[in-house]
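Figure 3 (text version): structure tokens given as input.
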């Protein structure tokens, strides 16, 4: 008898691909055949970055690709063109792929799992009458709840019907939920007003399509976001989805990782190293980059700093920086982040607050220094600083720069107050208990697996 066949479709971005890949590997271990569908561009990046090919064997998770209809990387970096191309081109390409797979012996698709942001894929599932459909949300439940509350935000005069923010104000959907500035709503802090309106329409459409699904699951936990899950009970937590839970390595990275940094960490004292990483999209100007560099030097603490090639190729370090820092600092182009955060030498995580990074830091009991850039990262920062109280944010000066003095002071404050580490350790225990036998996320995942198999 052939294995049940799941087709999984992530939104084409690093922060979306990795958690759905982790979910897919989890399903493959439970006896499913999984076909993982990336855009051709993302597929090529993943294959180039892979050092361990065991997870893409045909009997495990099979990687395939479809065109996204875009010509250049510049277009892919623009959310407006990306969202338009996805809806115009990938819809038909996915339909063609599923029909092709369904004609192969023993390969008929029994379940489609798509990123909630890929509402078009959910439409394809409905059109092709796929029996079981699951939407996967890779970010905080609170971010999805905010999307579901768009009609309420319009009714209360906080935003226009096209998503335009009417005035800058702090918004809290319920007590014990993150506080967010209205101008930092996910669609309102990216690009110009035209791009923001297109993103808003895209999000409205995907939220509507989320109602088409049988299950809506989220890479989070009840314990971390009780109010968000109470507000929208149809969202079910199955997180944290971590490679360490299956005793494996992370999969789905778009860049080759530099694992030599783990040897460097081995030589550092416990709880001594500042780990600095800003994800796959954060951009710095030269002034801000150099202020951060000098702050890390002035901290007189060892630091591991992930500096992507697209940053280091374009912005110089301060003069004589490498000589002065010496072996106290290590800069790498991409790090095996889950392994790094699990290392006993790590003292804190200076992060852009992407949700994957947030979950990885929380799951290792690491306190945060928060430097959000865009999208949902401001909501995550509020969770870290205001709700869970396991980190500190930075204040910008009148020129919009976070100065070296501000960074150095916040490092000293965070690492000088043992309560941050104590709360982070408690949060880790809550996060990891829920994925163990008998935990809430574990129970929901088991129920989902039984439903797909039934």
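Below: residues designed for each position.
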């Amino acid at each position: 008898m052939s294995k049940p066949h799941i087709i999984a479709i992530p939104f084409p971005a690093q922060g979306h691909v990795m958690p759905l890949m982790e979910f897919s590997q989890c399903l493959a271990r439970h006896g499913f055949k999984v076909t993982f569908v990336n855009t051709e561009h993302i597929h090529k990046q993943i294959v180039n970055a892979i050092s361990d090919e065991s997870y893409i064997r045909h009997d495990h998770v099979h990687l395939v690709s479809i065109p996204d209809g875009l010509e250049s990387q510049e277009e892919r970096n623009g959310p407006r063109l990306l969202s338009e191309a996805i809806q115009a081109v990938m819809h038909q390409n996915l339909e063609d792929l599923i029909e092709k797979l369904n004609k192969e012996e023993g390969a008929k698709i029994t379940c489609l799992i798509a990123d909630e942001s890929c509402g078009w894929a959910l439409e394809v599932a409905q059109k092709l009458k796929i029996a079981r459909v699951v939407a996967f949300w890779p970010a905080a439940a609170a971010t999805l709840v905010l999307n579901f509350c768009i009609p309420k935000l319009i009714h209360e005069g906080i935003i226009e019907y096209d998503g335009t923010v009417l005035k800058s104000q702090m918004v809290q959907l319920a007590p014990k939920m993150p506080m967010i500035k209205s101008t930092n709503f996910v669609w309102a802090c990216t690009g110009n007003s035209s791009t923001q309106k297109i993103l808003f329409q895209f999000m409205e459409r995907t939220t509507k399509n989320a109602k088409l699904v049988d299950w809506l699951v989220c890479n989070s936990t009840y314990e971390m976001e009780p109010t968000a899950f109470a507000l929208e009970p149809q969202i079910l937590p199955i997180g944290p989805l971590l490679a360490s839970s299956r005793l494996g390595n992370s999969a789905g990275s778009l860049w080759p990782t530099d694992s030599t940094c783990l040897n460097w960490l081995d030589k550092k004292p416990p709880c001594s190293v500042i780990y600095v990483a800003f994800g796959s999209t954060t951009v710095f100007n030269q002034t801000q980059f150099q202020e951060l560099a000098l702050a890390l030097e002035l901290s007189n603490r060892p630091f591991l700093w992930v500096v992507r090639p697209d940053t280091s190729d374009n912005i110089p370090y301060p003069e004589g920086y490498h000589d002065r820092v010496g072996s106290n600092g290590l800069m790498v182009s991409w790090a095996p982040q889950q392994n790094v955060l699990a290392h006993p030498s790590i003292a804190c995580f200076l992060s852009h607050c992407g949700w994957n990074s947030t979950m990885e830091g929380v799951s290792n009991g690491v306190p945060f220094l928060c430097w959000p850039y865009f999208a949902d990262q401001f909501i995550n920062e509020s969770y870290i600083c205001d709700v869970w109280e396991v980190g500190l944010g930075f204040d910008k000066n009148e020129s919009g720069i976070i100065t070296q003095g501000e960074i150095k002071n916040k490092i000293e404050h965070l690492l000088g107050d043992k309560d941050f580490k104590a709360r982070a350790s408690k949060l880790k225990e809550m996060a990891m208990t829920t994925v163990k036998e008998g935990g809430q996320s574990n129970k929901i995942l088991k129920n989902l697996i039984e439903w797909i198999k039934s």
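The chain has a mean pLDDT of 91.
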